[in-house]
Amino acid sequence: MLVLLPPSETKHPGGDGAPLDLPGLSSPELNPVRERLVAAVEALAADVPASRAALGLGRTQDDEIARNAAVRSAPTLPALDRYTGVLYDALDVRSFTRGQRRRADARLAVGSALFGLLRGGDRVPAYRLSAGSQLPGLPTLRALWKPVLTPVLAGAGELVVDLRSGGYADLAPVPGAVTVQVLSERPDGTRSVVSHFNKAHKGRIARLLALTTAEPDSVVRLRALLRRAGLHVEHHAPEELTLVVPADAVVR
Predict the structure, then answer these.
(1) What does the pLDDT look like over 116-169, one tens digit per residue?
(2) Strand-pair category, 116-119 with 108-112
C-alpha cells in the first residue's frame, strides 16, 4: 500500500542531515526534472521581487526566498519530519516507535512541487514552491511532472491511497488510486464538505494506515479496515471513499 500525502507550505527549519543529494532520493527517474526545478528556484532567489511574484509571497516572507537560495547547501530532514501543519500534526510521526517509523517510511510518500515524489525517509531541505507556482522561463509544473511522475505512481504495483489536495493531485493523476472525501454531518442529517479540517481527518487516516499491520489490496478491503478502526466510511463511487464525521467533531 502506498499512501500519497500533500506537502505543506510551512516546514520545520534546519535539520541534522547532509545537504541535498538528489541521486540519493527515491525514484531516481525523476531526477532530471528535480535538477531542473532546483536550479530554477535557486537562480530565482537572486531576484527577490521576481521570487515574491512567482511564489506568491509577501514582503514579510523573504525568509522563504532565502531558503530557496540555500536549497543545495542547507541541512536536511526526512520528508515526514520536514513538513508541518494540520495534517502532519494529526499524523504525528514523532510519536512512532522505530518499527512503526520504518513502516511509515515505506508506506507514506509526499507529493512535492519541487521533488515530485518523496518517500518518508528521503532527506530534503526547507524550501518554498507550491503546485500553482509558475517559474519564469519554464513550463507549468503540471507539464513538467505529469509525463514522468504519473508512470512512476501508476507502476507502484500496490494499492495507492491518494490523500493529496487538488493542486498536487493534478500534477500527476494516478489511475485507479483510491481517494477520500471528508463530509461533516449535522444532527438533522444534512452534510457539507469539510474544508480546512479535512487535513486533520486525512492526517488521522494516514496515521492509521501507517501503523496498521494489514495490507489492503483493494478499495473494499481498505474500507473494511477503516470501518474496523471505528470510522464511518461510505463507498458510493468505484474508487472513492467518503469519510463522514459529526459536525461537532470537525474541529477536534
Answers:
(1) 999 999 999 999 999 999 999 999 999 999 999 999 999 988 999 999 999 999
(2) antiparallel
**109 touches 5 (CB < 8 A):** yes
Q: What are phi and psi of 160, to 5 degrees?
A: -105, 125
**What is the number of residues in the chain?**
252
In the chain, where the domains are located: 5-249
- d(C-alpha 221, C-alpha 229), whole Å: 13
pLDDT tens digits, 162-208: 999 999 999 999 999 999 999 999 998 899 988 768 999 999 999 99
Separation between Cα atoms, residue 197 and residue 249, nearest integer Å = 10
Is residue 30 within 8 A of residue 149, CB to CB? The reply is yes
Q: What does each C-alpha distance from 215 to 135, 221, 225 come to in angstroms? A: 40, 9, 9
The answer to whether the CB of 75 falls within 8 A of the CB of 19 is: yes
